[in-house]
Specification:
68 residues, mainly alpha, 0% strand, elongated
Length: 68
């Protein structure tokens, strides 16, 4: 389920990046959207990294590592 969410999130980020050209004449809005895309990409990478870690070590071990 979470992997499906990541795929959708990835597609949305791609579409948002493509839409930046619509704001070439509006620097403030374009800059705001660029910052949002960067933040969302960092979040996407973090979630993907943690899902891969869960896959490698198992959910219980992941939770133990997070608590430690």
């Amino acid at each position: 389920m979470q992997r499906v969410g990541l795929e959708i999130h990835s597609n949305i980020l791609s579409e948002m990046s493509k839409s930046l050209s619509l704001f070439d004449d509006d620097f403030i809005t374009k800059n705001m959207i660029q910052k949002f895309i960067i933040d969302e990409q960092e979040h996407y990478n973090w979630v993907r990294q943690h899902l891969n870690l869960i896959k490698e070590i198992g959910y219980e071990n992941y939770l133990i590592e997070q608590l430690g």
